């Protein structure tokens, strides 16, 4: 069988792809363990609550001119960002009559606020579940950015290239190492057997 690669080029592709995905493989391997044992790892969320009152002039202005298109008025957005540790860019306000609700999900935690225009009462709550939850959410791509989603996809491509070039290198070296194919076959059969034997 003649392969469409020169040996040196194939080895270059193999080590380059391994170098590119090394850090990501370490991250996803560690978080694979923490996700698999999530029920055994205790995680207590650190909850921060903030209560505030909408300034009377701003409240009166919003009551006179309530948002008609469901958007967030500029004056209110500015006050919220000054009062709370939040960034409103990319968030969508939810209006129910005179009550505003906004959620701020993120890896490893989430936050939300509720504001009643009639009473002017604001309630904000932030939950931080810690570093393990943060890394687990990165593993799953939960509440992450588009850039992180692309990073996961590109890492998967690099890992695929690493595995395929490794397989071709195994084929090239198999005649010198008798255990090559038995070990490769074992690596393929073990997960299949576990799935078959553990199915109910």
UniProtKB/TrEMBL annotation:
<dbReference type="Pfam" id="PF16357">
    <property type="entry name" value="PepSY_TM_like_2"/>
</dbReference>
<feature type="transmembrane region" description="Helical">
    <location>
        <begin position="148"/>
        <end position="171"/>
    </location>
</feature>
<feature type="transmembrane region" description="Helical">
    <location>
        <begin position="183"/>
        <end position="199"/>
    </location>
</feature>
<keyword id="KW-0472">Membrane</keyword>
<keyword id="KW-0812">Transmembrane</keyword>
<protein>
    <recommendedName>
        <fullName>PepSY-associated TM helix</fullName>
    </recommendedName>
</protein>
<dbReference type="InterPro" id="IPR032307">
    <property type="entry name" value="PepSY_TM-like_2"/>
</dbReference>
<keyword id="KW-1133">Transmembrane helix</keyword>
